[in-house]
Amino acid sequence: MGQGLGPGARRAPAQGAVGAGALATTAAATTGLAVAIARFVVTPVRHKPDDVELLEVRPDRVVLAATAQTRAPGRYGIWTGGGAGHLRVGEVLAHDEAAGRVERTLLGVDRGAPAPGPGRWNQYFHSGTPAGALGIAHTDVVVTSPVGGLPAWWVPAAAGAPHPPQRRTCAVLVHGRGATREEALRAVPVLHAAGLDVLVPSYRNDADGPSSPAGRYGLGDTEWHDVEAAVRWALERGAERVVLGAWSMGGAIVLQLVARSALAERVDALVLDGPVLDWFDVLDHQARRNRLPVGLGRYGLRLLAHPGARRVIGVDGPVDLRRMDWVARAEELRLPVLLLHSDDDEVVPSGPSHRLAAARPDLVTHVPSSGVFHTKEWNLDPAAWEAAVLGFLAAHGVLPAAAAPSGGSGAGRPGGSTG
To answer: Domain AB hydrolase-1 spans what residues (predicted)?
Structure first.
């Protein structure tokens, strides 16, 4: 009894309280970081800073400060003057590593007078509207969705297209997280020329679209309602069938549509470029890149699914990312899918695309590539990208067989793999 009442025993509760307090502080800090990660993932980015430096502009080439982007193979655009100007560049002509300079072909100036100074890299290559950037007539339309009017581009099929589809078919093209409708411009010419109508909608929380009540992304869990509204718009205006094309998070969006919408029965195929097939895999990768504990990112994603996510994270409602894991849900696929994905994708790793292709070779056509970053497969080789898309659509009856490129690699065959 005396030992129990001694000085050491009297200090023990205080020491225990300090230990408990430290644990509570650590737990609170961990939760705070997880909440910050979750908020970052679902928060739209409104301002994108300049990220390249033009050192010289000549009639046939530009000289840029060397970065991973400016050294990358392929063709790209550059916005200048805060977006007022735009130019297009082609392949690397020279790279002086010691001087930190890269020379690239100047393919064209769309607007403005390019001069040395800051600019912003444009992976979409094109900038503007279908009419302004591509010379393809379009109509600005508004699609009515649950959150309001969604601006969209409507591009009717080319008159006298050499390979008209069997049935009137509309390609609905969906951009990725933080991107704009311009991301889809790269795919418009080939689909338009093949005889497909094309609809390029915005969705909630886009820079030019309506906000959701919370103003946060649902990572596909909510945006699919907007794309469903776009599909309905196309069907009400004469489309008999639909093809869904998407980039990055757009892949997560359209996969939710075909899993949850009654209009899925009108969809013939999916064309996905650098798609998010598993958000957990994406966030694990980003945590490692940023030297954060993988478990911290996972904790943040679990918080998104919590009933209190609306209050803690600021989303419109809980977002359960397990139902957006299409490797785990591979057996539920019912439609042909074309996956175009670079193995050097630094944002959305290609592992899930490889795994989904292996799990469903009966439905998934996988066209891997390498040497380029996220959603830049077209930029590396536009002709190969377009041939893969046309071959796939012809293989699945969306286009007549004559539309498939002759003598190609067979990338359009179900289960095929090229790269």
So the answer is: 172-289
pLDDT in tens, 220-243: 999 999 999 999 999 999 999 999
This prediction's pTM: 0.89
Nearest to 140 by CA among 174, 181, 176: 181
Domain containing 62 equals: 52-122
Residue range 32-53: mean pLDDT, rounded: 88
Reading the block at residue 340, the tokens are 């175009």
128: exposed, middle or buried (Cβ count in 10 Å: 0-12, 13-18, 19+):
middle
Structure-token pair, residue 368: 């891997």
Determine contact, residues 88/77, Cβ cutoff 8 Å. yes
**Count of domains observed in the chain:** 2
User: DSSP states of 320-342 as a string?
Assistant: -GGGG-TTTTGGG--S-EEEEEE
For the chain, counts of helices (H) and of strands (E): 11, 14
Amino acid at 47: H
* Within a domain: 380: yes
Q: Are residues 235 and 144 in the same domain?
A: yes
Task: Output the six-digit token pair for 68.
Answer: 């991973």
pLDDT at 401 over 50: yes
In contact, 166 and 400? CB cutoff 8 Å: yes
CA distance to 30, 294, 299, 395, per residue, from 27 (Å): 5, 16, 12, 54
- CATH number reported for the structural domain that contains residue 158 in this entry: 3.40.50.1820
Question: Is 255 a residue whose pLDDT tops 80?
Answer: yes
- For residue 286, tell me if it sits in a domain: no
Looking at the structure, tell me whether residues 73 and 221 fall in a common domain. no
* Angstrom distance (rounded) from CA 252 to CA 259: 11
Distance CA 28, CA 287 (A): 19
CB-based contact 63:102 (threshold 8 Å): yes
Angle at 175 between CA 174 and CA 179, to 5 degrees: 160
For Cα atoms 169, 205, 122, give the angle at the middle one, nearest 5 degrees: 75
User: Each residue of 154-212: pLDDT tens digit?
Assistant: 999 998 877 666 689 999 999 999 999 999 999 999 999 999 999 999 999 999 999 99
